[in-house]
Write a structure and sequence with these properties.
Belongs to the methyltransferase superfamily. Type-7 methyltransferase family. The protein has 351 residues and is α/β, with parallel strands linked by helices. It has a single domain, classed as Rossmann fold. Helix content is 37%, strand content 17%. The protein is built from eleven helices and seven strands. It has a seven-stranded mixed sheet, with helices on both faces. α2 links the parallel β1 and β2. α1 runs parallel beside α2. It is globular and about 70 Å long. The N terminus is likely disordered.
Amino acid sequence: MQVEAESDAMVGEHSVSEDPSSQSAMQFGEYKDSLVATISQHLDLKHHCTSSAAYRIADLGCFVGPHTLDAMRTITEAVKDKYKAGGGQSSGTPEFFVYFNDRVTNDFNALFAKFPEDRQYFAAGVPGSFHGRLFPKASLDFVYCSKAVHWLSKVPEEELTDPNSPAYNPDRISYINAPTAVCDAYLGQFTKEMESLLSARAQELVHGGLMVLVIPGRANGTQYPSWSQVFMALEPILLDLAKEGMVSKNKVDLFNVPMYFPSPEELKNIIQKAEGFEIVELSTFTRISFPVFPTEVLRGAYGGLLTKHFGTEVAEQAFDRYEKEIPTLRLRNPAEGNGLFIYVTIKFNKS
């Protein structure tokens, strides 16, 4: 998960050590079979034809939770199976090199400490934003990015905080339930960042390389997913703190969550305009059951954002009230609402 603010930062005595965005380990099992099928059906090994060259994989926005390790095991095993099935020109299988990427504040040592003893790949941490270049030209065979690109590196601040802007967004902390101009501003920022991500990967992927993105999103024709109630519950709490004088109303009006949940159609339009990329698979799934969403998970996802903007005292007050008022907040199953996850496989064809 990548955001400009330190989303996994300590908030008082609180912290989380797992991926906070959406209980990833549980969710990975929902699309593990899709990932294996993607490699079996779409991975072209003609451009990686010898077992002497390492097969290079990048996980963008890896964080420190178990999800990334499960995913890398699945990907490497599926590529091995592809070779054994005759997909490569060599009967052997290559060595694997996995690059774990996240922002510079990510605790890579915590991730490395969780490596399984039977790890079948070489590994390195690569700090930095995936919206820019991270790797040498034509150095990656496979790119994986799960539940990270919906986090924006920044919000369109000039539009959202200018009282003279049609996208001025007072009394709200996101584009949810906001006027169309606010939604358009968020979409514009998401589009710019996706274009930057794709442009960088176009330099780094080999011809025929694959990129798999898993993105929390919403159904076409809707404004936001049903599970947005999780962080939207903070909105009235922050407004109450402003009324009580704990924080200025202007400070609340200047706070906007850097997150956008795209629709499949929006994502498709962005990728189709990117030179060299071809969508070979785009599907959605909603069969995820969410248990109680613990306050600790919310702290992990948004604690750094609130602390950076409001300070530790206000952040603590906000989460304490959240915990008291909504102790057992449950997410609706996306199948009952308009929330979904977008699974897209993109192939890079160098012109």
